[in-house]
Amino acid sequence: MLAHRRSEMLDSVDHGWLRAKYHFQVRPAGNPAHKALGPLIVWNDDEIAVDGGFPFHGHSDVEIITYVRQGVLGHRDTLGSEGTIRAGDVQVMSAGTGIRHAEFNKGDVPLKLFQIWLKPRAEGGQPHWDTRAFPKAKVISNSPNAPSGADGKARFTVLASGYYASDEGALPIRADARLLGATLAAGETVRHTLGPSRSAYLVVAAGRIAINGEPMGPLDGVAMTDVSTAEITAFEDAELVMVETG
Questions:
Q1: 57 marked as part of a ligand binding site
Q2: pTM, rounded to two decimals
Q3: Is 66:54 a contact under the CB 8 Å cutoff?
Q4: Is 128 annotated as a binding-site member?
Q5: Superfamily of domain 9-133
Q6: Residues of each domain in the chain carrying CATH 2.60.120.10
Q7: Which fold is adopted by the domain 157-245?
Q8: What's the whole-number mean pLDDT along residues 224-243?
Q9: Where is the Pirin N-terminal domain (predicted)?
Q10: How far apart, in whole angstroms, are the C-alpha atoms of residue 7 and residue 103?
Q11: pLDDT per residue over 117-133, tens digit each?
């Protein structure tokens, strides 16, 4: 089943310095149809104004992935980590037994990012933070962790993963999930196969596509459950971000 969540229909908040849309229900008054998908409990589409940001605050027992779409994100935490994450890059933070951090717009344009929260497979553990730059990749294969081949064509890139054995090179997380990113050229079609016990949530970071015939616009999301194959066609150049769970 495909459950299309149109960007304009998502719950949202506007604090001036922060504008956010929620793909999943994060408040009791939120859309009850936008429930968690396995360990995937939060997917926020955030826009942070120049000089804006979140002051130091704490988390525990959650995996937090940040995918930067525009601008420059600054990070500091109580582990002593500091980072600068640019558009197309990803950071991961395993909160474990507890960590405090600050996130802020370090650039001169509005900062646009996806923040994704996952339940860990077990509570506790040492807090951890990491970041990595990833090249844009074109989807031409069902295999989500296939590297660039000898034909010179790029593959769907696994950005972060809790499946350590099969997704070498991805940022490690402690959840039964993986984050994938890809780009499609206008007119390109790809078929992506999901395992029998897996679900997925896909967001169109840029462009317009159809998935199994369902048209989707920029920043729309779609929850996929009991779907064996997703056929994705790009109507224009598109950037896709997806979390697989299970």
A1: yes
A2: 0.91
A3: no
A4: no
A5: Jelly Rolls (2.60.120.10)
A6: 9-133, 157-245
A7: Jelly Rolls (2.60.120)
A8: 94
A9: 15-118
A10: 24
A11: 999 999 999 999 999 98
